[in-house]
Write a structure and sequence with these properties.
Layout: H1 3-23, E1 28-32, E2 35-39, E3 51-55, E4 65-66, E5 73-76, E6 79-82
Parallel strand pairs: 2-4
Antiparallel strand pairs: 1-2, 1-3, 5-6
Length: 83
């Protein structure tokens, strides 16, 4: 195999790995009332939380406030509630 052939094979393999690694990455925006946060996992939120999940491309209105938080839970006003 020539140097060009090896280079093309390496580039193709690298592109394939990059494509596979991006398949698992998903993002969404979760909202409870007018408080939203970014999430990378889709949880089954309790019914009392009244959380709505939007796709990452969703654009919020002017009254939406973003509070970020890691972990499993939801915003209840200004308080983070875990379950």
């Amino acid at each position: 195999m020539t140097l060009i052939g090896k280079s093309l094979l390496g580039v193709a393999a690298g592109a394939g790995l990059l494509a596979l690694s991006s398949v698992g990455a998903s993002a969404a925006i979760a909202c409870s009332g007018n408080v939203c946060w970014h999430t990378h996992e889709h949880f089954d939120y309790p019914a009392r939380s009244r959380v709505i999940i939007h796709e990452d491309g969703w654009r919020p209105g002017p009254r939406v406030i973003f509070h970020e938080h890691e972990g499993r839970g939801y915003w209840n006003g200004d308080r983070w509630s875990e379950w």
